[in-house]
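RESIDUES AND SHAPES:
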Amino acid sequence: MESKWYAIYTQARWEKKVATLLTKNNVENYCPLNKVVRQWSDRKKVVEEPLFTSYVFVKITEKQQSLVRQIDGVINFVYWLGKPAVIRNDEIEMIQLFLVAYMNVKLEKTKVSVKDIIRIVDGPLSAFQGEVIAVKKKTIKVLLPKLGYLMYAEIETDNVEVIIKHLAYCNI
């Protein structure tokens, strides 16, 4: 059986402990650590904190799932559509590369993802549908093909509803 990456949910503040226990049990894992500068009254120090609170990634076969569940601090797998969520290799590699290149990385959850099909619910383009091609902090760029042109509109995320969620990505 082929090994795949899965996300597991851990007890609060147990990410590093779970990663250590997984390693001791010969389970390939990845706990993304973010380098953050902390200021104390007398000094500054770079510390490593888990990027995803309460999550660790494991690369295992389906048969190894029961072993992972038995590790102290593991609550369960993250599920997507009723099954443990499979994380693509390129997504794990992108996280690894990003954390090597940057410090003080911030995460921000979004309800809209690239390639989602959305309907605009407010504003002058109300009722138009389109495909999300980029997501910014509070706005998205949407491809609106109905007019026969490649036209982009930057729209507030509060003014859209997701019609079809692109399933290639798993939101943790």
Remarks:
- The two ends are 25 Å apart (CA to CA).
